[in-house]
Amino acid sequence: MNISFRTFSDSSPKSLGFSFFNGFDLVSLNFDAGLENHFLPGSISPYWGGFFSLGLISLMSTVDANNWSQNITTQLSAGGLFGVEIFIFDFLSLFAEYSLSATLNANTTSNSIEGFVETTAEYEHTLDIGLGNESRIGIVIYFWRKD
What we know:
By secondary structure, the chain is mostly beta strands. It is built from no helices and eight strands.
């Protein structure tokens, strides 16, 4: 579940987001911030902007106290986006957007076999052109009136 807070002043909405997931073996925490520039304000408003995101993912697999595996990933992303927001009412809109991002991952893997723990670390970077999970659609509910 992702919860975002968005302000709308002039034609430059700012957003802050937070997501948290705690499953059986998986814990995920993410913070993000973004800025949009609506270049044709109105009931149908195209925009472009940028975002920054910091995330932490922990995956733990346990057989018993001496045999387990844990992977911790720290992810840092930044990128640009463009989209369109359609206002149904002053307080309710739909949006569709596409983004291009650069990501840096730091992965740490620890394995325990019969109590002997081995830890490895690796770093990777990617440039995501958005053909997979980088397009989004959503609903925005404004709690403060848009000017």
